[in-house]
Write a structure and sequence with these properties.
The structure is a homodimer of 317-residue chains.
Chain A lengths: L1 E6 L2 E6 L9 E10 L2 H7 L17 E9 L11 E5 L8 E5 L3 E3 L6 H6 L1 H14 L7 E5 L4 H12 L3 E5 L6 H10 L3 E3 L10 E6 L3 H7 L3 E9 L7 E5 H6 L3 E4 L7 H21 L6 E6 L3 H10 L5 E5 L2
Parallel strand pairs in A: 8-9, 8-11, 9-10, 11-12, 12-14, 15-16
Antiparallel strand pairs in A: 1-2, 3-4, 3-6, 3-16, 4-5, 5-7
Helix pairs in contact in A: 3-4, 3-8
């Protein structure tokens, strides 16, 4: 098979031996694979793949067709359309994934959407639903709503019946504001408007320390801040009296470091909550642009340049 | 009845009209009532009593005998020994409490212990068990272990089967170290020894910001910091990357602001977990000193002076 390959910090399209599925694993012929921030770090030599995954093939999510199954697999068979978060190696002609982490791709879901769905929606769902326990009728702030995880979070929160306040840096960009409203945001604000838009039951923080400091005084009783991105800074000054007074919590997490069993729970919870909406087409994966896998270097550069709304997805040749 | 009464910042022993129990309430002839930090604040004119409680009679906990019951009470009757957290007015000859918040005082439990039990043990139990979800086998740090809540927390954590690391300012005080070991601490350390005593699954923070900053890098995966005291400072610098990496949470709360229903849950959870241990005498309320209620002024001054191990408890004449 061919795969996107990291060679001295440059991405090339190189031949590798075909992988084989072990017990409980699926061999997937990959059709589409989204790019994520961690891939850029890995290209630079940081954030190495966890043990058991190819060291030189990036890719944290994929969608494709099962072409072989390992011993003991139960749910999926050859020919089934699946998508999954993976520890690495997703941007390749073939990839091996544990069956426990795979989701069915509903009929009618485009490959490019399926390739960009797993990472962002798993991250957003785990943070909003599993960690923050977001309920219908609660007001949630999504801080950094324009990115892949942000647009996923806006939709998942709206699907859950929450009132969604989406915060972005520049509300002058009418196209972004329109997209967020269409995805389910009740209002779209700048960070400066946080104080007059609360109180918030849940705050999903994708930007970092400034967002945590901004929202803390505007939490409702029992408010929960979940941090999953710190691009704008990691050191937050936290007023513990405000935490106590609101009976609040500040928590955070990452997905990649979790065990296979933990990732299987994340996938199962996500699928249970979204399978119907995906089949009906009421959840959308905004895709900014697609590139062939052989042009991964250009695709990563486009991703790194920023300013896009939605995912950059690689397509197999 | 007579009650401890705040008169221009001074405590006097003055006559008041007898209170009457309303629906769902118990009238208690108070025998013993502990002093807490909030009483000192109230004496100074800060931290006023919540609506429905006497404005000039302090006292957040009490133990005594039921002498009358309001309409619709079910569990307790005249002559029963009860103890409870209350919104205020506990340091008096008579006090009215909601039946839902009352705990039975087991035979053989001394009045002075019962008078000093409810506030500290409710606070510690709610934080450790309900909020942090402390489980058997986990390692917990109690930061500020020598005080009333700290000694309660050490015992409750040990009762739950946790490994208890008690942190105090001065481990040179052999008497304090001995008490903490007797109450169930596996080790007694100074805050400087936190880095070599972890990783911690749970950290109960009774001191404030410095403790939060100290323990954060030494949390186990899924670690939980619960803050219920900020005497040493409320502004903590929190490294959000450390929170994400450990999949940690920082939360906080206060008891006094809760609704009657919420306080009833706290009392029920505490009683379910401790009734047997209390009856067997295996939970101890360290009492540093007792004073008659008529000498409340001296008792508060003793409390404010610090350096004691255990509660200061007022006894009815």
């Amino acid at each position: 098979m061919y795969a996107v390959t990291i060679v001295d910090g440059i991405l090339e399209w190189q031949e590798h031996p075909d992988p084989l599925p072990g017990p409980g694993q699926l061999l997937v012929q990959v059709t589409a694979a989204g790019i994520n921030g961690a891939d850029l770090l890995q290209r630079k030599g940081f954030y190495p793949a966890p043990p058991g995954y190819p060291v030189d093939i990036p890719g944290l999510e994929l969608a494709g067709t099962v072409v072989a199954t390992g011993e003991g697999t139960r749910r999926f068979g050859v020919g089934d359309r699946v998508m999954a978060v993976t520890g690495g190696g997703g941007q390749a002609g073939l990839a091996v994934i544990p069956e426990s982490g795979a989701l069915a791709v509903p009929d009618g879901m485009a490959w490019e959407s399926a390739g960009g769905f797993p990472e962002a929606f798993s991250t957003a769902h785990d943070a909003l639903v599993t960690q923050a326990g977001l309920s219908a009728g609660e007001r949630v702030l999504i801080s950094g709503a324009a990115g892949g995880v942000g647009t996923a979070a806006v939709q998942l929160a709206a699907l859950r019946g929450a009132e969604v306040v989406a915060s972005i840096r520049d509300t002058g960009r009418g196209d972004v504001v329109d997209v967020l409203h269409r995805l389910g945001a009740t209002s779209v604000i700048t960070p400066d408007e946080v104080p007059v838009s609360g109180p918030f039951d849940v705050s999903l923080e994708l930007v970092g320390a400034p967002g945590v400091e901004q929202v803390l005084p505007h939490l409702a009783l029992g408010g929960r801040i979940v941090v999953i991105g710190v691009g704008a800074g990691a050191k937050a000054e936290v007023n513990l009296l405000a935490v106590m007074g609101a009976r609040a919590s500040i928590s955070g997490s990452t997905l990649r470091s979790r065990t296979e069993t933990e990732k299987a729970s994340v996938a199962a919870a996500l699928e249970a909550d979204t399978a119907r909406a995906l089949a009906e087409g009421s959840l959308v994966v905004p895709v900014a642009e697609t590139f062939p896998m052989s042009e991964a270097q250009a695709a990563y550069d486009r991703f790194a340049a920023g300013g896009k709304v939605g995912k950059i997805v690689l397509l197999a040749p």
